[in-house]
Design brief:
- This protein has 4 helices and 6 strands, in the order ααβββββαβα.
- By secondary structure, the chain is α+β, with helices and mostly antiparallel strands.
- The chain has one domain (about 10-145).
- The chain has a 6-stranded mixed β-sheet with strand order 5-4-3-2-1-6.
- The longest helix is centred in the first third of the chain and has 17 residues, at about 25-40.
- It is globular, with a radius of gyration of 21 Å.
Length: about 170
């Protein structure tokens, strides 16, 4: 009788590779080259990877909390975008930043070479300057696969802000 071996657990890098592989070839190449450039630039940052059903996100954070992330790359059917935390607060005299979210702004990326554009460099520097938690000065960041399930945010919000308790009306005396 042949004993079947259990498949080895996928490493975070393998899991991320599988997520990126769902994108079209051009987007995969841009995403991977941007990720490599950011990894090189921010070696102490943790990469927080999220799998959303129609796109992949990798955020660069000084710790394991996405809320402290400074930059994020998103790969989707429309291409690759670079998001900046505190986006509405970033100086943008040329009006290059897109989006209207309350916390972020983004630029579309056609290649990793755009990361060296002076305007993009200025956005990155400003985002780092506005960060509440700085990147560690030494060490090496990790790749952390975060799970996200639809409805989680609603449940979390509901738990944080429970509805006010209903009160019974007393019958008034006549």
């Amino acid at each position: 009788m042949i004993k079947q071996q259990k498949p080895e657990a996928a490493t975070p890098e393998t899991k991320l590779r599988m997520l990126i592989d769902r994108l079209d070839a051009k987007t995969q190449n841009i995403f991977r080259s941007v990720r490599a450039a950011l990894r090189k630039r921010f070696p102490t940052a943790n990469e927080l990877a999220y799998d959303y059903s129609s796109f992949v996100v990798v955020g660069y954070s000084p710790n394991e909390n996405g809320i402290n992330g400074i930059l994020t790359i998103a790969g989707r059917a429309t291409g690759v975008d670079l998001y900046f935390a505190n986006g509405p607060k970033l100086p943008d005299p040329k009006k290059l930043l897109q989006g209207s979210a309350s916390q972020t702004r983004f630029i579309k990326l056609e290649s990793a070479a755009q990361l060296t554009d002076p305007d993009v460099e200025a956005f990155i520097a400003a985002a780092i300057g506005l960060a509440k938690v700085p990147f560690p000065a030494s060490g090496e960041g990790s790749l952390i696969i975060k799970t996200f399930k639809m409805g989680t945010a609603k449940k979390r919000k509901a738990g944080r802000n429970p509805a006010p308790a209903k009160t019974k009306r007393r019958a008034s005396k006549k």
